[in-house]
Amino acid sequence: MKDFALFRCCPTAVFLKQYETSTEAVLRKLGVPFLDIHEFNCCGYPLKNFDFKAYILASARNLSLAEKKGVHVLTFCNCCYNSLKQARHHLNQDGALREEINRTLGKEGLSYGQGMEVKHLFEVLLGDIGVEHIKARVIKTFKGLKIATHYGCHLLRPSRIICFDKALAPSKFDQLVEITGAESIPWRLKLECCGSPLLGIDDDLSLDLTQNKIQDAGQSGADYLCSACVYCQIQFDRVQERLVSGRSIQPLPSILYTQLLGLSLGIGEEDLGINLNALDLSGIVTFLS
Length: 289
Fold this sequence. Notes:
CATH architecture of the largest domain: 3-Layer(aba) Sandwich
Number of strands: 8
Strand content: 5-15%
Distance between the termini: 31 Å
Number of helices: 13
CATH class of the largest domain: Alpha Beta
């Protein structure tokens, strides 16, 4: 098992603390060692379309801090994963950019040297731990539970850089869901955007995209959505709560994958933050056997 530094993502501390706590609980249950690097800063994503080099510098600083500690980066946030991997790609491909960034990093005694990896939680579960090892730790399975998986855009694209799964026909998230005994169902809008990037810019369009996905998943037979992305989960949970009250749609609660897996591993609901979701998840435990 490799040594990892857990990259925690800025919005989770405010809007989705249960993603942090459930991830920590699952990693500990599976025996994955991780540490915190308190000097980590934002991945740089908010700067990407305003100041590209500032974005690269922010990501490079995080990568350099991990390299200095001799650890790889593990993140559960799709956006942070995408940002760090794209920055790593640009730094590895562009020697002039790497030299410029390293001159700035050098003021802190840091240097980006290409020696460490950026891994999504799902890659660690599938590749470093392995399906059979996880199955051996499962205490209860979900019987009859139908899940609509939502990968999120940042986990799949640009596929030539991210290289997580097949962008147009992914299956790894579905495989992880089925470890818990739940069924991952096909649904038409599975790979469509959740609407989060438009929230605050065009709220009506954002809510329309979210509503379309929720209704399609429900009509396809899903009991719950399952999300891998911080922003998508906020959209499917907090924003859906607004939809349910404002547009009177049939709710379809969304559970984080770490919460779903954690329940199968026998981790307590409080440690997984089940009660912190805006939409009620209490019914999901009735599927456990």
